[in-house]
Specification:
alpha/beta, Aspartate Aminotransferase, domain 2, Aspartate Aminotransferase, domain 1, 2 domains, 5-stranded mixed β-sheet, 13 helices, 12 strands
Length: 379
């Protein structure tokens, strides 16, 4: 089945009771048993729920995996991955990443004796120098949030396999439409399904996908034992969102390209970070591992002028100032004070998250209106 068909049919079957084409919202916490253990495959909704199960099968199908897991948020999904580790284990992570992931690693899991090294992975081979016998997980976010750096997944996977280390990829910014890291050798895919998978800014959810059954069983155990699951209503909404992922992504990419080109030429702008530019440091890797370049980009104002950046943000009308990304509507964000405020200033500035940086999630509105909005705000 091709990807555009998988978004609609992948892992799905019509409801057994009445043939409903969409899985019903099984709004139930529990399931009747005729005798202890005499049930129809579902006992309690923390462990299993038919609506969530339909969504988990869709996730697995989209990422060319065998097993999908849905969680109450992207961070809950990352939390489950980290619970595969033990005190004394080490993680090598991308140094430019979502501020909430950084906060979870450094403020929660570091307290449980897990050590994190945040390294630039722009030259993927460099990570080998950070590996030791305690290294158990490599955490890659690509494209990175918000600097749009690209990490060569295949090269990192070769290194992780050589050293028998798990490789997890946060595929939120790309979505499975643009890149499928399991096919490049990753072990675990993570998504903030809040973003492109849900696609409509109405649900907070996380997803994991793996190929290996033993790893899947460990994660299912954590999902049930820790209990950070999502509800049936949200599962239904994300399943509905996923069905239009390919058409939405196509338009996000088209509009993203136009916005990137417009900003690059604008005299009030210093730098535009978008992997589709030929002069982006890892453009060729982006071209080889992604189908297109997506709808996310960031930029700084001329002379890194903070107050100018705030004025632009305040003047934008269609681009709404808000946390999050990946919905049909265009959003703008100020990473330094919003999504990445939990990273100390000197740390975030090392990776380019300066006070004048503005991040755009380019939506699927008419491109003329988006460009006119940017033009009036910049002028
Ligand atoms: O918000 P949540 O569903 O828990 O997902 C966390 C998360 C994980 N990984 C990446 C790359 C993310 O971008 C996020 C959430 N990010 C935002 C809310 C944001 O505006 O960047």
């Amino acid at each position: 089945m091709k990807f555009n068909t998988k978004t609609i049919h992948g892992g799905q079957e019509h409801d057994k009771a009445y043939g409903a084409v969409m899985p019903p919202i099984y709004q139930t916490s529990t399931y009747a048993q005729t005798t202890p253990g005499g049930h129809k495959g579902y006992e309690y909704s923390r462990t299993h729920n038919p609506t969530r199960h339909a969504l988990e099968k869709a996730f697995a199908s989209l990422e060319n995996g065998n097993f999908g897991l849905a969680f109450g948020s992207g961070l809950a999904a990352i939390d489950a991955i980290m619970k595969l580790l033990k005190p004394g284990d080490e993680v090598i992570s991308t140094n430019d990443l979502y501020g909430g992931s950084f906060r979870l690693f450094t403020k929660i899991f570091q307290n449980f004796g897990i050590k994190f090294q945040f390294v630039s992975m722009q030259n993927a081979a460099d990570i080998e120098a950070y590996i030791n016998k305690s290294t158990k997980l490599i955490w890659v976010e690509t494209p990175t949030n918000p600097m749009m750096n690209i990490i060569d997944i295949k090269t990192v996977a070769e290194i992780s396999k050589k050293h028998k280390i798990l490789l997890a990829v946060d595929n939120t910014f790309a979505s499975p439409y643009l890149q499928q890291p399991l096919d490049l050798g990753a072990d675990i895919i993570m998504h903030s399904a809040t973003k492109y998978l849900g696609g409509h800014s109405d649900v907070v959810m996380g997803a994991l996908v793996v190929k290996d059954e033993e790893l899947a069983n460990k994660l299912y155990f954590i999902q049930n034992a820790s209990g950070a699951i999502c509800g049936p209503q949200d599962s239904f909404l994300v399943l509905r969102g996923v069905k239009t992922l390919h058409v939405r992504m196509q338009r996000h990419c088209e509009n993203g390209r136009e916005v990137a080109m417009f900003l690059k030429k604008h005299p009030k702008i210093e730098n535009v970070y978008w992997p589709g530019f030929e002069d982006h440091p890892n453009h060729l890797i982006a071209k080889s591992q992604m189908k297109d370049f997506g709808g996310m980009l960031s930029f700084t104002t001329k002379g890194n002028n903070y107050s100018e950046a705030i004025k632009i943000i305040e003047k934008l009308k269609i681009f709404t100032l808000a946390e999050s990304l990946g919905g049909v509507e265009s959003l703008c964000g100020h990473p330094a004070s919003m999504t990445h405020a939990s990273i100390p200033k000197e740390e975030r500035e090392k990776t380019g998250v300066v006070d004048s940086l503005i991040r755009l999630s380019v939506g699927i509105e008419d491109i003329d209106d988006l460009l006119a909005d940017l033009k009036q705000a910049l002028d």
